[in-house]
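Below is how a single chain appears once it has passed through the pipeline. First comes the sequence as given, then the structure the pipeline wrote out for it. We keep one example in the README because the format questions we get most often are answered faster by looking than by reading.
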Amino acid sequence: MAIVANSPARAFLKCCKVPGTFYACERCTTKGISVGVGRSKKRVYPQTDAKLRTRQSFEEKLQHEHHYENCNSPIILMKNVDPVKQLVLEVMHLFYLNNMKWLLNKWTSRNEATRMKLADFKCL
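Resulting structure:
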């Protein structure tokens, strides 16, 4: 069995920190860092060899910064569901949506080098 939900819904179900926070990685215990300035500021997780989460580490809340303090996930009560491996990270929201948003911003920006002209849209 697998549960498919977008990032905020998964965080809600798991009683974990929402995406974009320092300890938001759902699969490992890496700590994010902030890069960029102003509106282009992002949170990235550069460590690739961090300890992986397990059902046991999730149940015991070993990385307390990842979990909300007074909240217990209902997923833990489902003994046949692994909250780390069976809540699917789906590609639509993680990849395609963000890339499309980036492309639309580039195509409609005031920057002449990247902005599409009306004639470009007519060709589509």
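The first strand starts at residue 3 and ends at 4.

See the next section for the split statistics.
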